[in-house]
Amino acid sequence: MIDRDLIKRALAEDLQGGEDITSVATVSGDEKVVADFISRKSGVVAGIEMARAVLEEVGLTDIVVHVQDGSSVSTGDVLMTVRGDTRAILLAERTALNFLGHLSGIATLTRTWVDAIAGTQCEVRDTRKTTPGMRLLEKYAVRMGGGTNHRMSLSDAALIKDNHIAAAGGVAEAFSKVRAKFPTSEIEIEVDTLDQLREILPLKPDLVLLDNMSPAQCAEAVSIVAGATKLEASGGISLENAKAYAVTGVNYLAIGALTHSAPVFDIGLDLRAE
């Protein structure tokens, strides 16, 4: 996945209308070099095409991609090699690494969560807790790590949360208003208690979000629903207890940390002689 407008803005942000004064001073402008993008740790790669597009944006064309997005890599693996003008490579270096490290970090963390609930029918799902302007890329990285996406935008589907419920005057009231206004839209509704779950079930929601419930409460919710709707657990979930939630029978674990707390994946760019 590539966002060329974002790449242009990132490079412009790095130059601020000027030039790379360090490279202009230290590199003649006639030099050619080979550079490898190298993984400094083990994980899952995402953002290879973004990094490649950054290189292309500064005029580099001799680029060899060694791994594809979604691939598992180990320390020392060469992800991509570029040959060409030294100044151009140094100009592109940080922007390319920023995208590649950030997106690979999301993919790697997502894979960790997916592995934590392996053997269950539950799926790890992201949220809208994304970096402004980078939602499509970050949610793409989640998919590369084996996770699934929740809605991309507020217009994709309805998610009735506690503030909507308070404004509408109750769980059933909020649901009925959304259904009346948008009869064909998917509706997910958040409940804080099992009593609220029982109240909303006759209205046939597409999905119910179980907010801050324990694994035991989630298991009871699965029993109450008996397949009538899908269930998503959210809040209080960690890597340590993820499996306990997943085995209850809920369909999804909503994990905001996939995008808002993923550490940058360590990737370096090493110049070498041909």
TrEMBL record:
GO biological process, one term: quinolinate catabolic process
An example Gene Ontology molecular-function term: nicotinate-nucleotide diphosphorylase (carboxylating) activity
Pathway: Cofactor biosynthesis; NAD(+) biosynthesis; nicotinate D-ribonucleotide from quinolinate: step 1/1
Complexes and interactors: Hexamer formed by 3 homodimers.
GO cellular component, one term: cytoplasm
Stated role: Involved in the catabolism of quinolinic acid (QA).
Record-annotated membrane-spanning stretches: none
A Pfam family that the UniProt record links to this protein: QRPTase_C
Positions of the Quinolinate phosphoribosyl transferase N-terminal domain: 20-104
Binding annotation for substrate: R94, T127, R128, K129, R151, K161, E190, D211, S234, G235, G236, I255, G256, A257
Catalysed reactions listed for this entry: nicotinate beta-D-ribonucleotide + CO2 + diphosphate = quinolinate + 5-phospho-alpha-D-ribose 1-diphosphate + 2 H(+)
Name of the protein in its database record: Nicotinate-nucleotide pyrophosphorylase [carboxylating]
Protein family per UniProt: Belongs to the NadC/ModD family.
Superkingdom in the source lineage: Bacteria
EC number: 2.4.2.19
